[in-house]
Amino acid sequence: MSWVLNLVREDLRGFAGYSSARKAKVTGDVWLNANESPWLNAADAAQALNRYPEPQPQALRERMAQLYQVNADQLLIGRGSDELIDILVRALCNPAQDAVVHTPPVFGMYAVSARLQNAKLIDVPLVDNDNEFALDEQMLLSVIQAGTCKIVFLCSPANPTGRSIPRDQLLRILQAAAQRCMVVVDEAYIDFADQTSITELLNQYPHLAVLKTLSKAHGLAAARIGCLIADADLIKVLRNCQAPYPVPKPCSAIAVEGLSAAALEETRERISLTKNERKRLYSLLSQNKAVRKVYTSDANFILVRFYDAEAAFQSLLSNGVVVRDVRAMPQLNDALRITIGTPEENDRVIEALNAIRVAA
Ligand code: PMP
């Protein structure tokens, strides 16, 4: 048994979860054990949605395991990576006792899940050292060494700053966290980065967990498919903390198709186009008079500071372009986050920003 099981709430270590009809290891050809309808709904042409789905759809689990080059038993599929963040916090953190570390202004869901669980939240803010937002490594290491946190959430590349965490820095953090806490690396945007996935270190560091999603590069945000990749013993425990049937059958079916060789080929082309557009947009934004600063990005968005962010936001809106207003986030009171769209959509961004300059 891996030592990381010691990080699971004591009251949940032996928890078997809900004993669903689909978990029972029985066979037959007349299924009367789940109070399902024996008939298809009139709207259900071919998918046989009258039956509950597999709790962890095997075909998708194997496909994702192959894609991420891990074993299927190291992988838990969930309703987007959001659900997996929540399960991790619930299973590991005793309310009002254990702490979660996050690195604001990075992705708000870690804090939301901590709040819902009444876990303590420790801020280790990123440091804007002019060219890029970086981790405050010293502060992070001392928080880890203090021994009060159960989970450190890192995001690489980070949303909304766009920067990847250097591998040597991640290694130092993993080493400091050994026997102390989980280090979760959220790789939602890694498909757009040059850096390779940290999953290759999973067997070396049982307290490493990696979040993946099909919502970004794979274009399946509405299917709500994400996964957590971690120590197989921990995955077993987390699985028992999850809702009985978390993955709707139409969603897992389209995800399997969406990870076929042909679909992956197209996804790779789009990633490449996005990276080219990111470079073009970075250069155009850097030259734009309304822009104070553009951050380099390894993701499918760019973080931009403006001299007058309100004017920029309004000009974009009045041209029909909706970007993410991140001004309420710490350290970002003059910033907007712009997702990389199609070349035509990106042209619209530049046109709208040029319009402010003319009006000024
Ligand atoms: N992690 C990060 C860093 C994100 O930006 C997002 C979505 N905005 C998620 C996770 C959640 O993704 P999903 O659609 O898989 O729930």
Task: Give a structural overview.
- With 360 residues, the protein is an alpha/beta fold.
- Helices cover 35% and strands 16% of the residues.
- The chain has helices spanning 58-68, 80-92, 109-116, 137-146, 167-177, 232-240, 249-258, 261-287, 309-318, 343-359, and strands at residues 75-79, 99-102, 120-123, 127-128, 133-134, 149-155, 182-186, 208-213, 225-229, 291-294, 301-306, 324-325, 335-339.
- The strands form 3 sheets. The protein has a 7-stranded mixed β-sheet with strand order 1-9-8-7-6-2-3, sandwiched between helices. Strands 10-11-13-12 form a 4-stranded antiparallel β-sheet.
- Helix 1 runs parallel beside helix 7, helix 2 (80-92) packs across helix 3 and helix 4 runs parallel beside helix 5 (167-177).
- The mean pLDDT is 95.
- The structure holds 4'-deoxy-4'-aminopyridoxal-5'-phosphate (PMP).
- 4'-deoxy-4'-aminopyridoxal-5'-phosphate binds next to helix 2.
Outline the fold blueprint.
Elements (H helix, E strand, L loop, with lengths): L57 H11 L6 E5 H13 L6 E4 L6 H8 L3 E4 L3 E2 L4 E2 L2 H10 L2 E7 L11 H11 L4 E5 L21 E6 L11 E5 L2 H9 L8 H10 L2 H27 L3 E4 L6 E6 L2 H10 L5 E2 L9 E5 L3 H17 L1
Parallel strand pairs: 2-3, 2-6, 6-7, 7-8
Antiparallel strand pairs: 1-9, 4-5, 8-9, 10-11, 11-13, 12-13
Helix pairs in contact: 1-7, 2-3, 4-5, 9-10
The chain binds 4'-deoxy-4'-aminopyridoxal-5'-phosphate (PMP).
4'-deoxy-4'-aminopyridoxal-5'-phosphate (PMP) binds next to helix 2.
